Give the backbone structure.
Amino acid sequence: MSGTVDRYANPADVPEGTLVQLFFDAVDRMPGGKAAYLVLPDGDAAGTGRSWNYPQIEAVVREGAAALAKSGIRRGDRVAILSENRLEWALADWSCLCAGAVDVPIYNTLPAAQVAYILKDSGAKLVFASDGEQAAKALEAAADLDPKPEIVVFDNAAAGDGLTAGQEFMARGEGADPDAFREEALRARPGDVATMIYTSGTTGAPKGVMLTHNNVASNVWAAKQMLEVRKTDTTLSFLPLSHVFQRMVDYLFFSAGCTVAHGTIDRVADDLKRLRPTLMCSVPRLYEKVYQKVLDASGLKGKLVGWAVSVGRQAAALRERGQEPSGLLGLKYAVADKLVFGKIREGVGGRLRFFVSGGAPLAPEINRFFLGAGIMILEGYGLSETSPVTNVNTFEHFRIGTVGRPVPGTEIRIAEDGEILVRGPQVMKGYHGLEAKTREVISEDGWFSTGDIGELSDDGYLTITDRKKDLIKTSGGKYVAPQAIENLLKGNPYVDQAVVVGNGRNFVSVLVVPAFDKLSSWAAGAGAAASTPEALLESKRCREFLKEQVFSVMRDLARFETPKKIGLLAEPFTIENGILTPTQKVKRRVVADRYAALIDAFYDPAAADRTIFLAGS
């Protein structure tokens, strides 16, 4: 709805604050024995792990802040954190905030060249690195810097030439006076820059997003009004803390008394089962994987799952209207719940009250699948530049296919061209060293241009259509929103990943990574069994079957937005092969470059009669 403003709270009503004040408020409010963090056992080791209570955290942060000061770090100086999620990441972060340093988180998956760019651009004077691998990367990245930052490695055993062991660093802060520590820490002002987060760089060089204490603290407060977080809750923090989404909600969890355990993406399935969290945040990729795994069942089990999913879909339709299945449907649902849905809930720990989804659009079909299984996913929206949350669904105000209503203090406007504009206390201070780019996205009256296209309902629910820069314009002048089509495809059990292409061409096409476990089961029953993904795609029967699956879910699309050619890929899109960002977003430019020959083949007049293509064929 062009030109509409939706305001659910006056920004002036949102209290100003700092993350330092949030830290001390939580420390003072929580009982001494209340666990703030839980360190899970390494690998498959037995046990429940070691918990850290609030007084223990304050004591370590006090020494860490003092150690930074003894190391020459002054208020406003930059300190980088190059690490996977772990307790030390949080302790380093709190120490920087209390010392007045601006911390610069760096994804541990980035290569040394990109780390070097961030260190130089930010002017980091000290780097925290998690282990030997990250410390070596930091050394390489800092080789040409003058002056070189000190590199502190969390794992003491990894310390060597040019590195400071974490234990040695912390010894510098021993005996710090508690009163002097608090007095110095509380000098932080709401408008002070707290952190500088570099965008993941799907296009162009990463930009340093400067977020103030109040940007993030106000977002913590607003999110707390929307989400019910309890002192009895436990959460798994596995999305990169280098991104503001997981980091902001971890501040919220710390403030609310929810125990935080750190994990990694590659161990999330195991960690869910042993931690059994009660709430958790994730990006859509996790939900897509669970969905594909459930639907991978074959034979009699596959038929049972298919029946249960059908029953769950009917239950989800009722739950979207605030009702529960009853009568005959209620009986069917009870059976489906006992045989299928209960096992899905056990697979995510068995105690989960809700998920929060962000970072990218979640396919409505997948959200309804989880709702039918008795698992609530509250989808939200935001960007690094908005600290990050602007909108989120809640138990009270829940609508699948939308990202919910604005959080308190946030105004949403849809521009004439469909772009979503945001104004509120969470909007960044600006891009570091890039005043012109900052003025391009933040108007004089405070409206931030998100770069996303969306629609706003009369009752305030925001629907994301696509990224403005990702819209595909065909040679006929038609605009196609690829994410909606991709999410439609990912609702099919035989499709794992999909990317729509065709900018500037006379029609759009799609690259598809099949769900190979599911496809393999089908192929075995159809007499087309193969031992590798490549061999499956070489099978004409498999290709024709996938063609039917892909086109079957697109029958309701307009003609101009329906992909006409399909490219099948044996290799999935991953962080490791450079196609996904650390937050699991597709780098469309990389896809276009890597599969240029395949994409060109779609539009070769000599291949006019072909519909299915293979990479390299």
